[in-house]
Design goal:
The complex is a heterodimer. Chain A is of the alpha+beta class. In chain A, about 20% of the residues lie in helices and about 35% in strands. Chain B is globular. Chain B has a 3-stranded antiparallel β-sheet. Chain B contains 3 helices and 5 strands; from the N terminus they run E-E-H-H-H-E-E-E. In chain B, about 25% of the residues lie in helices and about 25% in strands. By secondary structure, chain B is an alpha+beta fold. Classes of the chains: A alpha+beta, B alpha+beta. At the A-B interface, helix 2 of A face strand 1 and helix 1 of B.
């Protein structure tokens, strides 16, 4: 038998191959017996082959970005295509404070370093600033930050490292700490004839527009999540003089754990205009404009593998929607998901516009300040003539109305079963399939999931509801448009659209939205796929009557509700929200265009009913059909409950 | 485990690696000498010593530090019998005799067996097991 099988990676398979070879090519016969001397030789040979195959496999795997698993290798491969993984990011809080002082100095400077300590979750976190902040003293008080322009403090500790440049050796400039927030790295180079810290060098991420005199440096991640600084070589970027002193200041942070502090104790170090330390004459209460948010962990390996090729293919130009996805994630590290829709796809089309929705990691909305920052940074990458707009996240909630039958003989407690089902649904709601733009809610998966929670579950009848939260502009006349992006189910007699209560100007009655599909003269659906939305109210004896006819229209086919000009004065739900729900025509719900799909377990209804047929209480099914019956269709209520 | 097969000639390599004085060939062990060597290898191999075959061998070393008496001898006897029966399919009618030698702090082992497929009388070999440390 020829020895041609090279694909075996398993020790036993390799050994069998060697034996097969010997069987046809050797004078020896005892290789087949484990006790023989020859078996020892075969073992050694097979072991050697196995180790070589294993090493070759490992080395080849680690040589490609797709297959590599060791962070150092992934980072190194990403580096080859110009990608610097996102570092940890410090949680940032915005504060203002005033310092009473008896100093005769004109200014007061808050030194870079520790500013305040903020407690959260039984831990005290240090908050610092990477650069000095100076304020003018007026009437014995120096004011740091205003409500409009607060001071940003970052969670972490400021560290400084110095290097003496020695051009005669192959020198590397490595920052030894992991946990560095790379955006806080400030680098100063003091030439032989300079004073103070020297000139500040700028951090860049590509060598476009760089010449031999540019005072720049690049950073790259090396082993153990540390960073190395790379300076110019005299062709691209200024070459460092011999004996220059490099001072690097940076913040090491706790990342995501630093999110949350909302109160701070001042711990800063103040100096006057002569650099002499100044003690405040009174206490310094800190006013919090924005609690600490946006702290994040270092980019993980799977994210590097995903974004590195995309940022490379974007080539620092935002052209396709994938380019935007990669570039926005790199300029705004707090991004969880990005949806980009070209203006030509909008209704009506808005040519030359790009609509961007961003789901941040913590929370649902990004602040106006962050939006402006992102837009400013995007300008560098975008094509001339294209106007980007960042729009607020539109969340399409999916709610379930689930009735679960269980075999009473298999569980001790129905509420425990309900808790387990809720917890399974909550876990599923965090699934990546759902929580993203372009996500899809898969109905069959949910049915399976509920059935498999416990062997006691005999069946479930689950109805799907889609919901949008309409943010009302209170006491203002406004038109509202709610896109669901999914076709609505049409019940010819109505009850398709339901809402929570709200009041409209001119009446104190709480009204609800409801719909009536358009019909022809014979009373059948006219096939237009449209309908009228009206406002209804409850009378004293709980009857419902129309409060205002035709307040808007509904397009069942597009899944769109338009409310004509209306003045909402208050809402039953908190935060001026009117919850509007519909029944999707297909139980698989998608997040269309800029809709962010989210399974709302807290608003879902889970009912548990004992399965009397399974438990043997009802053999004929008569009492089941009479007392334990559940409809697979929606109820006839007009209001959302 | 190896497949059971009947062969009229067993030929194994010798680990002495002394070349034949005339032909300069590597030395070979044939028939009963090959099998005796194999049985000794199995007995002397410590379980987990072989790569990916952790059960091969016998655990007699552990018994060598026990009392040198008939009880320990029976344990060793059983260990040798089990391992040889399991890993050496070329032998049959295996009989192991372990004789404790308390004065020398050792066990005298005799192994008797027939070789499957070879028309030769019952073969035996003996060795002494002794704790060396």
């Amino acid at each position: 038998m020829p020895f041609t099988q090279f694909t075996n990676l398993d020790f036993d398979q390799i050994k069998t191959e060697i034996k097969g070879y010997l069987r046809s090519n050797s004078n020896f016969t005892d290789f087949d017996f484990e006790g023989s001397n020859f078996s020892v030789l075969i073992d050694t040979l097979a072991y050697n082959t196995y180790i070589n195959a294993f090493n070759a496999n490992l080395a080849v795997n680690e040589s490609f970005l797709d297959a590599a698993t060791v962070r150092e290798n992934v980072v190194s491969l990403a580096r080859n295509i110009g990608y610097v993984p996102r570092s940890k990011s410090a949680a940032k809080a915005q504060v203002t404070f005033s310092v009473p002082t008896s100093s005769s100095s004109r200014t007061l400077t808050l030194n870079a370093g520790l500013v305040a300590v903020g407690p959260f979750d039984n831990t005290s976190y240090r908050f610092s600033i990477p650069e000095n902040v100076t304020s003018v003293i007026r009437n014995g008080v120096a004011v740091f930050g205003t409500a409009d322009e607060p001071i940003e403090i970052l969670q972490g500790t400021v560290l400084t490292k110095q290097f003496l440049v020695n051009n005669s050796v192959d020198q590397r400039f490595i920052l030894d700490n992991p946990n560095i927030d790379a955006s806080t790295i400030r680098t100063y180079v003091k030439g032989v004839n300079d004073t103070g810290l020297g000139r500040e060098f700028a951090k860049i991420d590509n060598i476009l527009h760089i010449n031999k005199n540019s005072e720049i440096y690049l950073i790259q991640e090396i082993s153990d999540e540390r960073y190395e600084l790379l300076f110019g070589d005299g062709y691209f970027g200024k070459k460092l003089e011999n004996n220059s002193v490099i001072t690097v200041r940076y913040i090491i942070t706790d990342g995501e754990s630093g999110n949350g502090p909302n109160t701070f104790d001042f711990q800063g170090n103040l100096v006057d205009e002569n650099g002499i330390r100044t003690t405040p004459t009174g206490s310094i209460p800190i006013t919090v404009v924005q609690r600490a948010i946006n702290g994040g962990e270092i980019e993980n390996v799977s994210s590097i593998k995903y974004f590195a090729p995309r940022l490379y293919s974007a080539q620092y130009r935002a052209v396709t929607s994938r380019d935007y996805e990669a570039i926005i994630s790199s300029i705004y590290p707090n991004t969880e998901s990005v949806a980009v829709v070209g203006g030509e796809e909008l209704v009506p089309p808005q040519f030359g516009t790009v609509q961007i929705s961003i789901k941040p990691k913590n929370g649902s909305y990004i602040s106006d300040f962050d939006k402006q920052n992102i837009l400013n940074k995007l300008k560098k990458y975008s094509i001339a003539g294209i106007n980007q707009k960042i729009i607020d996240l539109k969340v399409l909630y999916v709610e379930l109305d689930s009735t679960i039958y269980y075999d009473i003989s298999k569980i001790s407690n129905a509420s425990d079963l309900k808790t387990r089902i809720t917890s399974a649904l909550t876990t599923y709601s965090k699934d990546i399939d759902m929580n993203r733009f372009g996500g899809r809610f898969k109905y069959s998966k949910i049915l399976q999931l509920i059935d498999r929670v416990d062997s006691a579950v005999t069946s479930n009848i689950t109805k799907v509801i889609i919901r949008r939260d309409m943010k009302a502009l209170l006491n203002q006349f406004a038109q509202y448009e709610l896109c669901f992006g999914n076709r609505f189910h049409i019940n010819p007699i109505g009850y398709n659209i339901k809402s929570t209560g709200f009041t409209i100007s001119g009446s104190n009655d709480i009204v609800y939205l409801t719909d009536v599909p358009n019909k022809d003269v014979n009373g059948n659906l006219d096939g237009s796929g449209k309908g009228t939305v009206s406002a209804i109210k409850k009378t004293d004896n709980d009857q419902l009557q129309v409060a205002q006819r035709a307040v808007g229209t509904v397009d069942y086919t597009k899944g769109e509700i338009l409310l004509n000009t209306i003045n909402i004065t208050s809402t039953q739900a908190n935060n001026a929200i009117v919850e509007v729900q519909a029944f999707p025509d297909s139980n698989d719900v998608i997040g269309l265009k800029d809709l962010y799909l989210s399974l709302d377990v807290s608003s879902s209804r889970i009912n548990t009913i004992k399965d009397v047929i399974a438990s043997g209480e009802d053999i004929s099914g008569v009492s089941f059909a009479r007392d334990y019956y559940t409809s697979s269709y929606s109820n006839g209520d007009l209001e959302r409950k | 485990m190896s497949t059971r097969r009947i062969s009229r000639a067993f030929k194994d390599i010798s680990f002495s690696f002394d070349p034949h004085p005339v032909t300069k060939d590597l030395p070979v062990l044939v028939n009963e000498r090959a099998i005796i060597r194999s049985v000794r290898n199995i007995v002397e191999t410590i379980p987990t010593e072989r790569f990916f075959n952790s059960t091969l061998g016998s655990d007699i070393r552990r018994s060598l530090f026990e009392f040198v008496d008939i009880g320990t001898a029976l344990v060793i006897e059983e260990q040798i019998t089990n391992s040889v029966q399991f890993y050496e399919p070329r032998i049959d009618n295996l009989k192991v005799e372990v004789d404790p030698q308390p004065d020398n702090n050792s066990f005298n082992c005799n192994v008797f067996f027939d070789i499957v497929g070879l028309d030769i009388p019952t073969t035996n070999f003996s060795f002494i097991l002794e704790a060396t440390r």
